[in-house]
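User: Hi! I'm working on a homework problem where we have to compare a predicted structure to a textbook description. Could you give me the structure for the chain below?
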Amino acid sequence: MLGPEADLLVQLAEHRLLGRLAVLDAALRELPRVGAQPLAPEDLIASVEQDDADVGPEALPVEHNLTPILELSASCTARVRARKRGNRRRSPRRRPVGRRPRPAPAWSTAAMRASRFFVSTLKEAPADAEVASHRLMMRAGLIKRLAAGIYSYMPMGLRVIRKVEAIIREEMNRAGAVELLMPVVQPAELWQESGRFQAYGPELLRVKDRHQRDFVVQPTSEEVITDIARQELRSYKQLPRNFYHIQTKFRDERRPRFGLMRGREFTMKDAYSFDRDAQGAARSYAAMVDAYKRIFDRFGLQYRAVAADSGAIGGDLSQEFQVIADTGEDQLVYCPTSDYAANIELAEAVAPAHARAAPKHALAKMPTPDRTTCEDVATLLGIPLTSTVKSLVLASDRKDAAGHATGTTIWLLLVRGDHSLNEVKAGKLPGLKDGWRFATRSEIEDHFGCETGYLGPIFPGTGHDKAVRVVADRTVAAMSDFVCGANEADFHFTGVNWGRDLPEPDLVADIRNVVAGDPSPDGQGVLAIQRGIEVGHVFYLGTKYSAAMNAVYLDEAGKPQPMEMGCYGIGVTRILGAAIEQGHDERGIVWPAAIAPFEAVICPIGIDRSDAVREAATALHDELAAAGVDVVLDDRGERPGAMFADWELIGVPWRVVVSERALKAGTLEVQGRRETAATAVPRAEVAAFVKGRLAG
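Assistant: Happy to help. Predicted structure tokens:
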């Protein structure tokens, strides 16, 4: 049979001749100690060289897994060598002009069989799976937990990821972006140059190599792409430019949870645009927004693009792409009668249209024992919650150039009793932009002479002259005769009015979260709120990174100018979780067809007992595959109930059942994952029926 020279098999693989040994391959699998693919090229490794810069190259022998085969007779090798010698004496054969290449043999296109794939489902989800997507991905065998927030992507889940990536690549390429690949591990010098090495916080995984040099495991790649741009893009003639990559990332979440929704290791697509000026950057930004809309349209997900805060990335213009789901962590604000949409962090709460009413009641100090919330006080006094004012105390620490604390400013923020503080908006106030925190108990008692629950903006007779900056929300600034804490335990003031009972606030600003029914900022109606899961984000960065890292180009006059940048991310693996949160039922996952692991599954009943069923199922598989349908044939011989349950759990959009009874009737049962009953379709029309439904 085969001789010990592995080079023969390598040559066969290189010249696509291993298929000729299909019969031998099947026979070899029956031999003891032989792998499932004895002639696979990847098993024909003789040695591997490891290049270590510190110790020099070293040859590492790799034990071959085909010893039982390679110890067989060398007759096959001898015959092939004899043929080679004979062939050298023959003149080369030329294919006649116009003749089509010989089609590949049927066995070269492997049919997708469930028995040859990997299907692993669970009846119960692990105890630590908290949300539907996490439970269903674990049960359907899409992922497998390795550590907290770190998962292996199993074959079924990897098929979904590859389909997501393919759609992203097609649309990014269509938009003119160019793919590259940047490393996961990056030198800290670049992050120190941008200022993010310390500013990013503990979520950035910092490591040292054996030489004690600092590196980071990247959660994002602005620094690296800016470094590439400043070296490669030197002239205005090279702009605009857009680079993207799809890469593994790591963010050291303090509490990873919800499976892929908030993991530590994840995969993202990041794109970065470089332009000459703000106008060009705006065009690049708009092109990416259009590309994202095409991407999410093709995913088949219900989504909404909303204005958003830039967060740790920084920048001036930002939009999030949110998949609509009741379990989403984000609140999306929109106007049903206009195009206005924003994340609740950014949604503007407009000032009341009416002017502040004149006082009607005198200031009074009322006992409110053990009533520390606005709700409790309103109930005790028999007044609407909207007549109360909530007090929140913040602190900002002043620092010198060396970063040493030089003092602390205390801030009193006032919002109406039924409203909540928007911390993102608060962080943009003058004096709080450089960072803030909630005041400590000792700071509160020192400045207000009172414990929390009874705080307010009136300080009569307390003897405290320490400065407290008072910021009132727009709604509070328009209130009259309101109720607030008296800065004394168990007491509140009623009938409080600005100007009469206390000075006007130091600052009036929008510092609250909007609520459903608020006026839309565009004046076109009122606001509504729904929940979503962020899966994409686009930013206009301006010169935030190019200025910090001196990424400049030479303009027409030969003068250096900083490049205008934008960055655009899509959470590739997060899309799996978001799609499942949006599409699932009591039976399992309900995938959109475009990103499902398979578009259709053939479920033959009794395939291990009936030749007619097996032949019909195989023929249908080949017909669907030839029509371009991503189809799998379940040939495991499972009972119908177990087989159906597996594929409903996995979420394949279309199922075709082949049975002897159906074959006798000349029809097959076709059922969509979202449908409650099967449709009897004539056997000859099944492929066209499924193809049409997928297209529709």
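For your comparison, note the following. The two ends are 54 Å apart (CA to CA). Residues 1-7, 9-16, 32-109 have pLDDT under 50 and may be disordered. Good luck with the assignment!
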